[in-house]
Amino acid sequence: MYDTGKIIVGLAIFVGLVTSPIWLNKGKAAPKPSPKLDTPAIQQLEKKECVESRQFMRSTHMQLLNEWRDRALRKGERRYINKKGEKIYISLQNTCMKCHSNKKEFCDTCHNYTDIKPYCWDCHFIPEGRKTWASTEGHS
Amino acid sequence: MGIDRRSFLKIVGLSALGVSSGAWEVLQPGEVDAAHGHAAAEHVEKAATRWAMVVDMRRCKDEKGCTKCIDACRLVHNIPVIDNPKREVKWIWKEEYEHAFPDSHNEYMPDELKETPFILMCNHCDHPPCVRVCPTKATFKRPDGIVAMDYHRCIGCRFCMAACPYGSRNLNWINPRPYIKEINNEFPTRMKGVVEKCNFCVERLAKGLQPACVEACHCGALLFGNLHDPESNVRRVLRSNVSIRRKPELGTHPCVFYLV
Fold first, then answer.
1. Which domains does chain B have, with CATH numbers?
2. Cα–Cα 20 to 30 A to A80, which of B25, B43, B108, B109?
3. pTM of the entire structure?
4. Residue partners of A17: CB distance under 8 A and separation at least 6
5. Nearest to residue B187, comparing CAs of B207, B171, B204?
6. A19-50 confidence digits (pLDDT tens)
7. CA-CA distance, B121 to B92, in Å (whole number)?
């Protein structure tokens, strides 16, 4: 075998470079996200429970939101009956965000952690987030 | 052993018969349902509700310069006000008679009619061409006759804008948010790259309210009701008055009626 030394050194450098993110970030794990639930609307609730159980909402809120979207828009059904039999008005802005008015401390913590960028907010309102709309953007 | 000529011809003959029996149904006399648009229209006919609008221009013309319906719609649906006519977004707007009804215009008609701006909006057609051309089914027809839009699905291809003979659809060429004057927190905005239009206030109808323009009109020029109920307000008015519709010859069956 020719150039054994060069090949081995080359391989070692290559492996080092490829795995460098692991070494460089060792011990710097991003903190586990902790979404905050202390909005005024939630604090006023007697029983602090979402539309469905906490476990269900944690794992399945995206499917639930998709289902809500299609139901309200395409079928015109704006009532959701949860597992406890309660009727809930289907609306992201007017149901979800009325309680979870702290998008930054609630939605964004996990979405940033998992690097998910939902496009909900291109159209739906972030509660009291209108100041961020640049009024000078893109003149006609 | 290979297949002989005689049995080969038998197989070919039988296969031909099999294939043609499928085609037989198509060749039968009668109408072939070529487009699902027809099926949707039948569905609409069976429904108990068919929303429609009547615009009484005899009342509207006395209120010169009134924009109450337009303002109410803008506020309720967060519609941007963009001065550039190439980029404007409108759900309900004013237009002269000769542009609104280009086929029934003549120079000898009353000046009043020629000069009065007509109130125009999406006609929520029975046979909506926009729905037929939409490649993603972002725009669709509800059983109650409303031609609705699912902005989540709109890809901004503008086929619907080309298909609509009434100019009822506008594309958001730019982010509309900076151009919204007053904001209604209950209703979303749209984003750059989607088409939008009048939705007959589905979100208000779901709560049992009248459309915002109808509620805002103080001279009673806008009437909204169920076309499938013979005793409804719109049916009564249409029974006792002569009404016209925009470009009915196109066969779209518009459901906004005008009394002149």
1. 37-259 (3.30.70.20)
2. B43
3. 0.78
4. none
5. B204
6. 999 988 888 877 888 888 888 888 888 888 89
7. 5
Helices (H), B28-103: 36-46, 57-60, 68-77, 97-100
Q: For chain B, say whether A132 makes contact (Cβ under 8 Å).
A: no
Contact B84 A136 (CB under 8 A): no
pLDDT tens across A77-92, in order?
A: 999 999 999 999 999 9
Q: Do A125 and B140 touch (CB under 8 A)?
A: no
- What one-character DSSP code corresponds to residue A31? P
Could you tell me the two tokens for B198? Answer: 């009048």
Kindly report the nearest CA distance between residue B162 and chain A, in angstroms: 22
Domain boundaries in chain A?
Answer: 32-127
Residue length of chain B: 260
Which structure tokens are listed for B8? 């080969």
Query: What is the ipTM for the molecules in this complex?
Result: 0.75
Residues A140, B83: C-beta atoms closer than 8 Å: yes
Closest approach of chain B CAs to the CA of A134, in angstroms? 6
